[in-house]
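Table S7 (text form). Paired inputs.
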Amino acid sequence: MKTLKIGNLCASVPIVQGGMGVGISLAGLASAVASEGGIGVISSAGLGVIYGSRPADYREASIRGLKEELRKAREATRGIIGVNVMVAMSNFADMVRTAIAEKADIIFSGAGLPLSLPSFLPEGARTKLAPIVSSARAAVLLCRKWFEEYRYVPDAIVVEGPKAGGHLGYKREQIDDSHYSLETLVPEIVAEVSKFGAEHECHIPVIAGGGIYTGEDIYRIMELGAEGVQMGTRFVTTDECDADPAFKQSYIDARREDIEIIESPVGMPGRALRSSFLDRVREGLKRPKACPFDCIKTCDVTHSPYCIMLALYNAFKGKLQNGYAFCGANAWRAEKIQSVRELMSSLSAEYDSFAQKIKGLAR
């Protein structure tokens, strides 16, 4: 595989492990991926629940939790460690400031356009910024906004297609529309980003994610212009994934028909594994009386059938009867638990094998 260069950062394997909350990708998984040459990513979502003792402590506990997870990751690896911070989070600013102060290598930010992200960077900060977008239009808008307001050019751009797990930046009717497929989006975004980079005499690598599962998938999407890939689902069924074993087993037990698109309380469609909890929601689960955490800006407790933070936290702890697992479109293909090293090695071998096959056909 080719290396992935983001400014002065160089990943020997062009794989970014997707940030997965609540608690699915913490220091354990992120450091393991970084040690194998990829970019490990800690999810900042829900750290206040994991590290807090009561809802009132949520924001302070989130800051403490992110500091602790970055410290643990740094002790475990000398590789590249990033942090995922969702724009929709009510403590977005806290998490961004903390990641920068703790010298995270890179911040990945989506679930909304992070138009103000460069405003948090103090002079001399080493942290790179990589927005996550779902269209060429969004990529261009963000690039122009960052440059006009902050004289800052994105260090990388992640395009997340509709086969991704968790919250999706698409309308429900767009999810299965080929016009919005990752294979369609990548060339469009690469072309626009390359044009912007040329105008400003810089290079902005594009990283593609959403439904990428094999080394062959990596090869094919990089042939379309992506310089790296983002993968989340594949890393759930690893020894080092920070989720409870029951969460991982739910992927292995899943059938294709168990993967569904749900309407999340945060106002976005999401992809998840069917569970008894989601079945009860459809049947009219009792609504929460109050919002315990105020964790997502767009979540309206008066219209929410459940607290998404508690549902995802319960799933992280293996209590799937009281929650559910987000997943990518290919989660049903999981067959076993393996180490991150074994997974990265198999992906590299698949990539190389397919590359040789293509070269052989071209002769």
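Next pair, protein 2 of 2.
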Amino acid sequence: MQRPSMIQMSTIAVAVLGTLALSGCGGGGSGAGPQDSSAQISTTGLFPGASVSLLNHGANALTIDTNGTQAFPGNWTGASYAVTVKSHSPGITCAVTNGSGSLGGAAVTVDLSCDHGAVSILHSFGPGTATDGQGPHGGLVTDASADLFGTTQYGGTNNTGTVYELTPGRSGYSESILYSFAGNPSLTGYYPVGRLVLDSSGKLYGVASSGGNGNGTVYELMRSGTTYNLLLLISFAVAADGSQPRAGLLLDSSGDLYGTTANGGANSQGTVFELD
């Protein structure tokens, strides 16, 4: 048998390579391979620090933490795409639009929109009259009936602060002034700030940043019928003991109270105190 020459072998090799190239491109075969789509996510509504995790067909996770448009990673070849929200930061709600469809080589854009949720105004404080407070700086505390308790630094009878209660009802929350602080000067304190503490018996504990012996006070409010009476627990006598308590208190299981003062102390830079 006659062996092929070197020229003939080169021709055979080129023919084989040509056949493989045609089959890889879909040419000469029975059907074309899948085409890639340009896939991207368009995000709106995210606030700084929030993030959303997305999936395509339950895989190829993508975490988004900025608004704008970016590419979605993973394999988008095939007949369809299905983008879903896997998880998101607390306080937001996110949804996708055009989250599923068919891929045909065209560009695909999935819209992701996030919402912070609706804000409901429970009470708008007045101009600081005797019937309302002004300047709520501290947080809120709630009881078993969903009543809310807080303080305002100003307003009330003497414009030196209040302790108030918001009670839920059919038409919303209604406000009641539980206590109006005395005027300046006052041995019981004035300008209450910080978050209140509520114990199991319904007593409220808080701090006034001014008054007393001039450096602020810690007080207790106890219900007596339909009114609240204030009991002075401590008046910061000298700056070395602490001055101007502004933050809320902590109450432990033994009934001890803990707090801070913004100024005073041995170095005039504030203190941490305990009342037992």
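The first strand starts at residue 39 and ends at 44.
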